[in-house]
């Protein structure tokens, strides 16, 4: 990442981001740098490691559970969703039915929630 590029100024816009993942690596520094501190809720299908020092903006979430997505969005006042959850080729080829569920149904769940809460 080019450190000469200034991070987005989120504080003045009061945007609350919801980042979805599925075993994708994006560390806390990069999310803080890109979106601002205190404005990001990061989620993943894996629970935060016990030795993690700051998991204040991290939550376990299964992208296949629409109700959990809706609860996360509503409870955190989310107004922007950045959807990264996917099973990519190597993992997806090992379990095609799961890849289809995550990559299709997961997107559908996020879109349904966004529509429901008027994002």
Automatic annotation (TrEMBL):
Record field: transmembrane: none
Show the InterPro entries listed in the entry. Answer: Epimerase_deHydtase (IPR001509), NAD(P)-bd_dom_sf (IPR036291), NAD(P)_epim/dehydratase (IPR051225)
Per UniProt, residues of the NAD-dependent epimerase/dehydratase domain are 49-116
Return the SUPFAM superfamilies for the record.
Answer: NAD(P)-binding Rossmann-fold domains
Taken from the record, one Pfam family name reads Epimerase
Gene Ontology annotations of biological process type: L-threonine catabolic process
Give this protein's Gene Ontology molecular function annotations: L-threonine 3-dehydrogenase activity
Q: Which protein family is named in the record?
A: Belongs to the NAD(P)-dependent epimerase/dehydratase family.
* PANTHER family in alphabetical order: L-THREONINE 3-DEHYDROGENASE, L-THREONINE 3-DEHYDROGENASE, MITOCHONDRIAL
Q: What protein name is recorded for this chain?
A: NAD-dependent epimerase/dehydratase domain-containing protein
Species source reads Ancylostoma caninum (Dog hookworm)
Organism lineage reads as: Eukaryota, Metazoa, Ecdysozoa, Nematoda, Chromadorea
